[in-house]
């Protein structure tokens, strides 16, 4: 299930040209995420497009196809001048000087635009296509992706019953891996597929795969990418020392009042289950906003608490997505770290020395006593540092049967709405419910 190569006739088409020859016109809501990645939300409909009209309207000789004007259908505006696609007064130059050859090209384009009448856009029917009954819908909508229908995920004639989600995953892997070797090694672009396969199966397999892996390492999510990131993290630890702490951040996306204020959702939890349903639907319909809000909170947390309050030296985070949503795992090293790894090793050595001394009769215990003393000092240092780092405990744990579950989740309350005498109980509620 690998797509065929794009034929020469369909190569280098513009987006408008590809839309003109598509038999189906997909309409969907597309947005751009904070990192630049595109996504979509809501429903997608496909309207049938009559490309026969365009095919019968095109000229038959290549020398007569210099310029084609395509005009979308629609009622004329109140201003007739706005309905003119091009006229002699259209500005085609800029503030830069225009050379003689460029001026001739501009005149040639102007002449062609003045002579040719606009060609109407292919007729688009109002009734959407039933994607459950029409086969090869992706080929109809994207002719350059599936020029001959091969590897079309909407092909209903596939012998194996493969879920659509798995088909899309397979195509994404093909898209990530296609052209990897040739892009990294343009000098060997003349090699055929058979020659590349022979190279991979020969004694030069290690050389071939080393070239391939270096390029794949730039693709986020691949094994080579995470291998490279792991080596970078190990290099940081080797250079500046082991991290002080490891932490996990979860998203309370169902409760944050500031997040749901962006959706204009009710934050009154006394209205019943309808508010919870609205919150859940807002999170489902707007994952890009939820991700953005989570990253903004995390960045503020790192800036104000990790660096300005605790005095971090460096940190490293990794975002993960599961069925529940986004969360983050991270590690950081603080500037005042006394060397916890080395201290714990020294404390363990002193503990073992004390145990050995208690269980055995030793004539000379000088070295053991030194290890015991050093271990005790190391243990005291670690305990004092942990007491500074973890300065609070749960004042009302659930195992004491004194805690009463609040009606409102603590994450749904704004900090400004919590009175001074409620802060300790709110802190206990937060620890017991998160």
From TrEMBL:
InterPro entries: DUF6570, Helitron_helicase-like. Residues 168-330 form the Helitron helicase-like domain. It comes from the Eukaryota. Residues 3-79 form the DUF6570 domain. Pfam families: DUF6570, Helitron_like_N. This is Uncharacterized protein. It comes from Paramuricea clavata (Red gorgonian).
């Amino acid at each position: 299930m690998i797509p065929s190569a794009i034929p020469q006739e369909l190569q280098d088409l513009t987006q408008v040209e590809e839309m003109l020859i598509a038999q189906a016109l997909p309409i969907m809501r597309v947005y751009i995420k904070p990192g630049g990645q595109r996504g979509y939300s809501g429903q997608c409909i496909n309207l049938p497009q009559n490309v026969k009209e365009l095919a019968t309207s095109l000229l038959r000789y290549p020398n007569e196809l210099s310029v084609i004007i395509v005009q979308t259908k629609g009622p004329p505006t109140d201003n007739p001048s706005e309905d003119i696609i091009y006229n002699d007064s259209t500005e085609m130059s800029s503030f830069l000087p225009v050379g003689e050859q460029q001026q001739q090209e501009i005149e040639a384009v102007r002449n062609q635009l003045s002579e040719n009448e606009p060609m109407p856009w292919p007729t688009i029917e109002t009734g959407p296509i039933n994607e459950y009954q029409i086969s090869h819908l992706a080929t109809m909508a994207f002719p350059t992706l599936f020029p001959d229908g091969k590897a079309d995920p909407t092909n209903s004639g596939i012998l194996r019953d493969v879920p659509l989600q798995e088909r899309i995953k397979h195509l994404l892997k093909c898209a990530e891996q296609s052209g990897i070797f040739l892009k990294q090694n343009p000098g060997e672009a003349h090699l055929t597929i058979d020659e590349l396969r022979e190279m991979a199966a020969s004694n030069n397999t290690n050389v071939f795969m080393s070239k391939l892996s270096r390029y794949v390492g730039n693709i986020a999510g691949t094994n080579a990418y995470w291998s490279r990131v792991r080596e970078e993290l190990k290099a940081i630890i080797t250079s500046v020392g082991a991290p002080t702490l490891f932490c996990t951040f979860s998203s309370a996306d169902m409760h944050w009042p500031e997040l749901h204020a962006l959706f204009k959702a009710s934050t009154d939890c006394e209205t019943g289950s309808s508010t919870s349903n609205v919150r859940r639907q807002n999170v489902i319909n707007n994952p890009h906003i939820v991700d953005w809000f989570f990253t903004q909170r995390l960045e503020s947390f790192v800036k104000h608490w990790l660096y300005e309050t605790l005095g971090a030296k460096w940190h490293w985070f990794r975002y993960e997505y599961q069925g529940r949503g986004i969360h983050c795992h991270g590690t950081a090293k603080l500037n005042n770290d006394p060397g916890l790894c080395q201290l714990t090793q020294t404390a363990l050595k002193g503990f073992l020395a004390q145990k050995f001394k208690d269980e055995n009769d030793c004539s000379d215990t000088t070295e053991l006593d030194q290890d015991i003393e050093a271990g005790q000092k190391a243990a005291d240092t670690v305990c004092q540092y942990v007491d500074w780092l973890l300065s609070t405990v749960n004042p009302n744990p659930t195992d004491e049967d004194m805690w009463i579950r609040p009606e409102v989740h603590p994450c749904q309350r704004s900090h400004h709405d919590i009175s001074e005498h409620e802060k300790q109980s709110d802190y206990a509620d937060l620890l017991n419910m998160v």
